[in-house]
Amino acid sequence: MSKADDTAPARPAAKRKPAPRGRKAVIGKLWKAAQTQLEAHEAHLAELPAGTAASETDAKTLATLARTVRELVALDSAAVGGGRTVRG
């Protein structure tokens, strides 16, 4: 290390949003994200012309959202069994 390196100013640390604390906060954020995605998908389907069938991509998106919600419900059920309610 040279003498110039010793006198160089320290770079400021990058500012980050604080991480959610605990399982409850993480699951709550996942519920919020799933709700946002579902609302966006519903809006997309509502914009389809009358009589138009949804595409295969739309069907896959809906299946993924359904699986996500099913998994979140299972997480909520596990938390309730522990005496806590996660969804908020």
Question: Would you mind describing this structure in some detail?
Answer:
With 88 residues, the chain is an all-alpha fold. It is 64% helix and 0% strand. The protein contains 3 helices and no strands. The chain has helices at residues 3-7, 22-46, 56-81. α2 packs antiparallel against α3. The N and C termini lie far apart (53 Å). 1% of the residues are buried.
Structural class: mainly alpha
Report the uncertain regions: none
* N- and C-termini, Cα separation: 53 Å
Helix content: 55-70%
Rg, Å, rounded: 22 Å
Can you tell me the overall shape? flat
Q: pLDDT average, as an integer? A: 80
The proportion of strand residues reads under 5%
Largest sheet: none
Report the total helices: 3
SS elements, strand count: 0
Question: H/E element string?
Answer: HHH
For the structure shown, list the relevant keywords.
mainly alpha, single chain
Provide a compact summary of the structure.
The protein has helices spanning 3-7, 22-46, 56-81. By secondary structure, the protein is mainly alpha-helical. The protein is flat.
What is the fold's blueprint, element by element?
Elements: H1 3-7, H2 22-46, H3 56-81
Helix pairs in contact: 2-3
